[in-house]
Amino acid sequence: MTPFAWPAQQADHGRDRIREEVSDMNIRPILLACTVFVTASTLLPLAAHAATDAYPDGCVSCHVLDKAKAQDGRMSTLLKAWTAGKIDADLLAQSKASMPAGVALKGKHPAAEDSLEDIPAACLDCHGSDSKKAPPFSRLMHLVHLTGPKNEFVTAFKSDCTACHKLDAKTGEWSLPSGPEK
Questions:
Q1: Model pTM?
Q2: What gap in Å lies between CA 88 and CA 143, rounded to an integer?
Q3: What is the pLDDT of residue 50?
Q4: Per-domain residue ranges for the chain?
């Protein structure tokens, strides 16, 4: 009995046969995918580098007079209300929640107009991380901007950290810009 053997097949490598096989392939999706990949890998780094920061000055970029909405969100306007004891109930609750242990909040902000020239750096004089008399800045700001049912920062800004915190792409360091209100 002879062992079973497949019949030898000859490979047809002729030009016409190769053209036939290639023309049967749908090469368009492959070309499209390659084109998209090359374009994206070339342009995305350029676009990211060229992206404009809509809020380059942090607090003072957002806390502005918005005539279209008839809202005055400037820190000077807010501070004037707070020194008069006119504090929104939600803000007061958040302020109390972020107070250092054992310190009672009086519900009225002391005069601090001199702080308006360097927002928020000047605020840190009283609202530093080791504050014993006022809510620490970072705890209060994160509560104010990231919690609450009708929070504009959450709904309009999607809680985007980079509206306030700025990344130095060269060093990887984060910073919080500071300056006078606009």
A1: 0.68
A2: 14
A3: 52
A4: 59-104+112-175
- The residue assigned the tokens 């302020």 is 95
- Kindly report, residue by residue over 85-106, the tens digit of the pLDDT: 999 999 999 999 999 999 998 8
Q: Is the dihedral of CA 59, 90, 92, 73 positive or negative?
A: positive
Structure tokens that stand for 46 in this block: 């350029």
Phi, psi of 119 (to 5 degrees): -90, 125
Q: Which residues contact 84 (CB under 8 A, 6 or more apart)?
A: 108
Distance between CA atoms of 147 and 6, rounded to whole angstroms?
Answer: 74
Burial (0-12, 13-18, 19+ Cβ within 10 Å), 75: buried
Q: Is 95 helix (H, G, I), strand (E, B) or coil?
A: helix
Q: If pLDDT is split at 50, 70 and 90, which confidence band does 31 have?
A: low
